[in-house]
Amino acid sequence: MLDPSSSEEESEDVVEEESKEVMAPQAGARLSPSRTSESSGGLQPSSRSSSVRPSSPSPSVVSEKEKEEMEKLQKEEEERKKKLQLYVFVMRCIAYPFNAKQPTDMARRQQKISKQQLQTVKDRFQAFLNGETQIVADEAFINAVQSYYEVFIKSDRVSRMVQSGGCSANDSREVFKKHIEKRVRSLPEIDGLSKETVLSSWMAKFDAIYRGEEDPRKQQARMTASAASELILSKEQLYEMFQQILGIKKFEHQLLYNACQLDNPDEQAAQIRRELDGRLQMADQIARERKFLKFVSKEMESMFIEELKSSVNLLMANLESMPVSKGGSEFKLQKLKRGHNTSIIDMGEENENQLSKSDVVLSFTLEVVIMEVQGLKSLAPNRIVYCTMEVEGGEKLQTDQAEASKPTWGTQGDFTSTHPLPAVKVKLFTESTGVLALEDKELGRVVLHPTPNSPKQSELHKMTVSKNCPDHDLKIKLAVRMDKPQNMKHCGYLWAIGKNVWKRWKKRFFVLVQVSQYTFAMCSYREKKAEPQELLQLDGYTVDYTDPQPGLEGGRTFFNAVKEGDTVIFASDDEQDRILWVQAMYRATGQSHKPVPPTQVQKLNAKGGNAPQMDAPISQFSGLKDADRAQKHGMDEFISANPCNFDHASLFEMVQRLTLDHRLNDSYSCLGWFSPGQVFVLDEYCARNGVRGCHRHLCYLNDLLERAENGAMIDPTLLHYSFAFCASHVHGNRPDGIGTVTVEEKERFEEIKERLRLLLENQITHFRYCFPFGRPEGALKATLSLLERVLMKDIVTPVPQEEVKTVIRKCLEQAALVNYTRLSEYAKVEENQKDPENVGRLITPAKKLEDTVRLAELVIEVLQQNEEHHAEGKEAFAWWSDLMVEHAETFLSLFAVDMDAALEVQSPDTWDSFPLFQLLNDSLRSDYNLCNGKFHKHLQDLFAPLVVRYVDLMESSIAQSIHRGFERESWEPVKSLTSNLPNVNLPNVNLPKIPNLPVNLPQMPSISTPSWMAAIYDSDNGSGTSEDLFWKLDALQTFIRDLHWPEEEFGKHLEQRLKLMSSDMIESCVKRTRIAFEAKLQKSSRSTDFRVPQSICTMFNVMVDAKAQSAKLCAMEMGQEKQYHSQIDTLIEETVKEMITLLVAKFAVILEGVLAKLSRYDEGTLFSSFLSFTVKAASKYVEVPKPGMDVADAYVTFVRHSQDILRDKVNEEIYIERLFDQWYTSSMNLICTWLTDRMDLQLHLYQLKILIRIVKKKYRDFRLQGVLDSTLNSKMYDTVRNRLTLEEATSSVSEGGAGLQGITMRDSDEEDEDDD
Known about the structure:
alpha+beta; 7-stranded antiparallel beta sheet; 6-stranded antiparallel beta sheet; disordered C terminus
């Protein structure tokens, strides 16, 4: 049994008296057989086990163990009794709440994920990634799911969140949604497909993966049912919940439920009135004896009494506001209005709250059912009869007509009346047959006076027969049902006599009426009267059984109602009726004394027990039986216990703690929030039993802190709410005014405040693990706000922002160390899992660098996640972002130590560390806050010497490759770039692909083939040395450019140096090509057998490429470099001109050779005369071939072949056009000069034919090659053409035209066709 409390709120005398009162039934109480067997069953095994041991322990050991076992059982039994007593109080709160309601505006909690469910989700996502599901998805979605699976689902932080009970399916969905939003936004736009459509499609696929093969309709139905139970619970569900919370068995609940009459609202209201009256008396006693709690101020003692009275008055007002009846009087106790000045209600003053007769209003519903009439013999069988019925003062109703041979109806009439003793008249009529009869004939009547206690079944009643009716034995069978209104608690006939009312001993009809929750009246009524004849207001009266009074005739069993200065004696004719009257009046008076029937007292005395002071009365039919059952099972002590004698502060602390445990272990991710039903019961318990609000929230805070310290996830908003309430109470700044504060509350608040501060600082230090992936939503922001509140010295004075900033800065500094330590451990574990063979081996520099790159990836991932998921702190403090930047720098500085150690062991001539720089730099430069920060500058200082050394070595390597390459250059065109290029010592930047991360990490730099080199794979191009040079220069510049050096000045320096180096290298390449070109021409043939070699074209292409690459590799936006770049262009142009000039000169030499052969036919030379004579003589006998045409054909073939080679192999059209222009002009100048030298000589016929052929073919061929007409028709050409035309005419005259054999300067293609 739970001992009564010895709280300081009660006086010692009250405690002693009421302890005796409560302890009294304990002597007679006994355990039920089941309990006894359970107890003995728990003891027997220990005795048996000790008896079968090989060696018996000493008696002292046995006694010690038995003693410990007994103490353990005793503690368990005390705990069980305490929970049973607590359950009684909770049951009464649920059965008749009058202060609280189940809140409907609380945020609905999501179903939490268990460990098994998390494993199931992992398996489902793995199955999708393995292609084992039927879900159709594109590559982008699969990549997103892969990244989500690796980062979120498999994260140890999610496992911890599941273990803490704070992870719900909604959290998983929201994280995925946030994860894919950036990915979807970065996708290219598709006509007709919006990004929102893609998002919704991806989320639908995610839901399908998450749900697996479950039927969504079943899941929806399950969620709907769970959501309904989360919102509101019925009384039965609340009983069941608290049975689980307190460990109450079902049969114990049934016993307590029936014995406490929880289904009887009148009894529960009476119980509340007795409790409130007891609390008022306790407050009065505390004030008299000055047994106060220890307050922080002496003045609070009087305030405490006022608080107690005010709280009770408020409860009385709440109870008074509960409805009593439908449409009843609006009378309210006037004394409740005085509750505002917190005075004790004076139960003896009657002048201020006297009831009048008009305040008592009753409304009854009557049902009159007429069944049949018996004894109707005098009427003819076919005569029509019918009945009428009426309640006096109301309307009259008539039944249907029936024949006299069968007068049955079964007709029901409904009436309402305000008379407790109404007169119901039923008359029987027959239709009159007379012509002049105005009314039907009445045969008989019956008048009844029903009460709510009258029988409800139909009965036969003898009718009063009219004078003219021969049937004297008429009976009518009818039923009259009179319902009891809600505000009528009991009624019946009693004898009564009193001092002020009912002054004569007389039997009257009494009704016990409830006017309001606190006002009851005993009213006597006469027949057919709506207002009571006399009434007695029961306020302040005490009812009890009494012995028969001498001198009072009438009545068998007596009871009285006693008040100071007045006694009213009642008597009934039946013992059971007396018990019902006493119990009804006991509920109405609200007295603390429980009347016990004399018969029950005799039974208890016969058993040797004392009469229990039971609060729960005995109902009409099953009360005695329930009481006996409750006593049999040892439950009477819990039912009869006076709630005012208990320390409800400790009881509430216990029930709240157990409720929180139950809540944290249910299927919802509650984060410490109670369900609406739990909030309702706890609110009602506190209000009804006077639990101080500050104590309630301090206990709640203490319980929440214990759970949070043990790893449970608690909503900081909930902590903030309770802390704010306690702080405002302790510091005297409550919204409802200053309240009393106990020393215990203040000390406990300070203790909890310090614990809360440590918890919050720890949570901020471990923010990545306490709020993983930003879940629960808004938790970090709420934690920061709560920390500011906790740091306040009082409720009014705000804490300086610098102080809050200092505390949080210190936490984040620790957070950097915690995060990096765990990250390093994770990286090591991950590496060991990937390659378990390397565990324990000596780590090589390359392996150390590889591990550092992987660690850098994880570091970047952490920083990105901090920005993505933990930036909400800036909503609490604007300077949160600045502190997070400092945190990131601290975090990176820890990584810098490991990075520096890894780089120190690297070889000085290895460039494998550049990918590390690119990875970190690309991430940092995109972050506005970290760009050029402390770590970023350290990174630059670390890698700047490496970059400079790398550029130096590359410059030397390229210069050497140019020198050696041109010495061995074959000038063959490059057909396959990779087959001929020498190995280049470039950094190994083609690393394996970075695994997908939840953040968009920059891609690793790579040396890609320049776009200008795309065409050389399918066509000839420059030489191997030149292509090697250009590729190296472009690769070097691309690599340096992809470094994205953050410091502008050093970046410009690198760019300038590479541009100038490229200029020098290209200049060297051009000059070496020019020298090789001239040497090549000098070694070539001078005859028409000369064919333009491939190497000549390759050299031209080198110039072409050099010009193109100079624009790309040497151009800068600075004046000096522009000038230097223009010098490169000038050099290339001049070199190209020289090369064209050299090639044209080569062509001119060949033409000169042809012309030299023609010079042998000059007129006047011996060879010419001899050759002419020989030809003429021979032509008479044989056909002589045309002398000299092979020379012309050979030259024409040479020209055409050279044109085709140059046109096909050289890639620059401008150079070809320029070459052809100069070639054509040079040739015409040379021919013109040759002809001018022979101005005075006539051309030999064969000279003429060859020159005509050469000139015409050259003209036409160069015109086909695109030489402009202005060049073709130059003055030189006109001079040559005119001379040859003249010579042609002269030859025609002298030779008769036969010697030219059709060769002419005319514009005709016929000879060309013949010749060809």
